[in-house]
Amino acid sequence: MHLVYADGQGNVYDHPELYGLARSGDMIVELLEEELIPLPEGAMLSLLPNTRAVGMNPSTGEMLPLPEGSQAVGALLPQGFTRLCLPGYIKTDKSYKLPLFGYSAVVWKDGGFYVAAEQSDDPQKWNPMNCDRDAVHSGVGSLTAKYPENRLYGHLSNCALGYECLTSSNTFLNRWEGAVPVSYSCNAGCFGCISEQPDDSGFVSPQTRMNFRPRVDEIVQVMLEHLKTPESIISFGQGCEGEPSTQAKLIIEAVREVRSITDMGYININTNAGLSDHIRGIVDAGLDLMRVSTISALGDHYNAYYKPRGYTLANVEKSLIYAASQGVYTSINYLVFPGVTDREEEVEAMVEFVKRTGLKLIQMRNLNIDPESYLELIPPPQGEILGMKTMLEIFREELPEVVIGSYTHVPPAGEARQKKAIVRVSP
Predict the structure, then answer these.
(1) What is the DSSP string of 326-357?
(2) How far is CA 119 from CA 44, 83, 277, 297, 339, in A?
(3) Are 300 and 313 in contact (CB under 8 A)?
(4) What digits encode the pLDDT tens for the residues 119-173?
């Protein structure tokens, strides 16, 4: 398990003597063999600027930072894989904030790269290697030509071609889960927002938020183009927008119109679910799936990260319970971070939250954040750090009916919401 590091020019090496180390929260820890898997297809190595890698002398157990001029290296995992540890490093500039990515510990072992991770879902649908970029270009050309006045297709074409976003790419490939962003505003001030940051945050947002309010007809066009197969999913709530439920009136009108035309596929919303009344209206309009973003089931931790405006975690729970009561297949987009999510009190609170809300699916998503900034923001640990593998084992044992995954799924047979019969009026 040899240390992986980079020189000042970005060339990556494995250290001939030192073993690789990792971080759990703010602690440097040893990596365990059972935590390592071969670097998955679609993963990328990433430099950690303004850091020094930390390794271990296997003979003495001494932890040694590499000389200045070296850089720590991490791995960025594709969907379907949950990281278990962060890279082992120290910052050379404590004021510097790492770019908003989810860095995982990586080592050199048996002639190849290994990462501290566990496969939590089938990675094939979200493997970037399975997205034909030529086909995306062709789809963009076809749909923007077909709907030249639809601003959503213009916006999504930049997401698909510029950012190579897989969800927007799916929109132009007419497959799996596609995107229909609707909101430029938000009712939360997330510390790690990937589409909008305050000028003084020190972070650079990796995406640009949409800056217009789409019309109902634009939304309906995107939805109908995508909902053409039984397993197709169209999703409100993307990384390039704010909170979709702030545009509940648009969504409700669009969903009702679409469901008056077709019952094909699934309509999903990715939401913070804080606007309970808005969520209720969206559910009643014909929503099939709902994924709620959360970082914790503990109020002080949740509030520190999301900075909710006009709602609380109790509103989120209320929305989930109502949606589940109406037959919506509910899940959480669980933003996980080694050394925090696996704290004893966090695990206990999340197990009870899942039981109370009747969740069907936990989507394990690696939190993209500068570790030091995040750890300074949230409450300190109250109990033992259990480890990410132990946390996953507890979830599977305590929540046997809940799917542990990584992305939105089509509900199993028998668990899909019953759609209302379509009534068409003859002209």
Answers:
(1) TT-EEEEEEEE-TTTTTBHHHHHHHHHHHHHH
(2) 16, 9, 37, 24, 19
(3) no
(4) 999 998 888 888 899 999 999 999 999 999 999 999 999 999 988 899 999 999 9
What is the Cα–Cα distance from 2 to 56, expressed in whole angstroms?
Answer: 9
- The token duo for 330 is 């509910």
**Which CATH architecture describes the domain 128-405?**
Alpha-Beta Barrel (3.20)
Q: What share of the chain is helix, strand, coil (3-state, %, to 5)?
A: 30, 25, 45
Which pTM was predicted?
A: 0.91
Question: pLDDT tens digit string along 357-379?
Answer: 999 999 999 999 999 999 999 99
Q: Is 43:77 a contact under the CB 8 Å cutoff? A: yes
**Cβ atoms 103, 88 nearer than 8 A:** no
Task: Give the CA distances from residue 25 to residues 1, 2, 269, 340, in Å, rounded to whole numbers and listed in that order.
Answer: 21, 21, 31, 6
Q: Which of 172, 181, 163 is nearest to 139 (CA)?
A: 172
**Domain regions of the chain by residue span:** 2-119, 128-405
Half-sphere exposure of 253 (CA within 13 A, CB side): 11
Distance CA 55, CA 3 (A): 6
DSSP state letters, 210-253? --S---HHHHHHHHHHH--STT-EEEE--TTSS-GGGGHHHHHH
The span from the CA of 218 to the CA of 167, in Å, is 18
Chain length of the chain: 427
d(CA 31, CA 117): 11
